[in-house]
Every structure is written in C-alpha cells, then in structure tokens.
Design goal:
Elements (H helix, E strand, L loop, with lengths): L1 H15 L6 H5 L5 H34 L15 H30 L10 H13 L12 H38 L5 H12 L4
Helix pairs in contact: 1-3, 1-4, 3-4, 4-6, 5-6, 6-7
Amino acid sequence: ASFTTLSECKIRIIMAEPLEKPLTKSLQRGEDPQFDQLISTMSSLAEYSLSSILRTLFDWYKRQNGLEEELHEYRPRANTKSKNDEQQRDYLLERRDLAIDFIFSLVLIEVLKQMPLYPVLDGLVNEVINLAFKHFKYKEGYHGPNTGNMHTVADLYAEVIGVLAQSKFPAVKKKFATELKELRQKEQSPYVVQSTISLIMGVKF
C-alpha cells in the first residue's frame, strides 16, 4: 500500500514538471531516501515471497497503464495552437508511462536479486523478460522530448535482464536468440541494423 501511495505521489510530481526535465533528476536511486528505503524493504520481503511480490508489482503496473489521467497539472499556454496542445498532451502521457516503467524497473532490479533463493513460476519470469525486451526495440523516426528518458528506461530494463540472467540465463538466452533470428530474417536496412544494436544493448549487463 505504501509503495502504491508513494509511487503515485512521485508520478503526480513528475507530471507537473517541465517536459525537458530528465526523469533521472526525480527518480534515480539516492534522490529520495524514503523511496529507496521502501524498495529495500520490498527486496527483503522478496526473500520470503518473491512470487507474490512480483504478482503485486505487475498488478500495480497494469493498473497504472490502464489509467487515463485527467492531467489536472497540465495547463496549455493560451496562445498555442490546439494541434500543439495535443502533441504536448501526448508527450506528457508518454512521460507518465516512462515514469511508471522507471519506478517498476527500479523495484524489479532489487527484488529479482532474491531469485536464486526463491523459485518463481516460469510464467512470471517470461512476463518480466517479454516486458523488458519490448523496451529494447528501436523506435525509428522518434525525436520527441522523451528520447533521453526512453534510453534511460531501456538501460534500466537491461539491468533487470542482467539480474534475471544470473539465475534464469537459459530463458533470457532463448528470448534474445528468437528476437535476433527475426531481425536476421529481414532484409538488411538501417532500421534492421539499429534494431540489432538496440537488442544487443539490452543484454549488455
């Protein structure tokens, strides 16, 4: 419950910040001792009930991604065109999604360290792997204000995979091989090259 409350409070603050402010300024480890302590506590609890903590985390993640915020904090300037307002709103929603992923991956990195001590169902392991690999996909033609945040979140999910691979290497290797095979079957192009680099960067830890 305190994780939900604290996370939603942090997301609300982030939504009120300028789009240009990197998420790392608000969310990185060491920025908020209370939040760091909470993550540490969840990691300790995971020693005894990793599966249930993972399920709870995924429930929170899915719930957050299903919410449509009213964005009360967002006030478009009176002299901007409506199309520009729409784009700003899209960037703001994108920022919110990335903040959710940022928080989620930070917690995963810590709780998954308990994986060698506590067996977890393959279904949950695959759910983590599939979600992480989605963030390793190259986004062609994107030049929005969230580019830096996207790279940061992809790096955090790469860290998640690094922790997971210590105890579930065969599952990570299988997913990587499948993704790489799909890319190799495509006709060579700058997009395929960039996609391959993004995929490899996802398993750099």
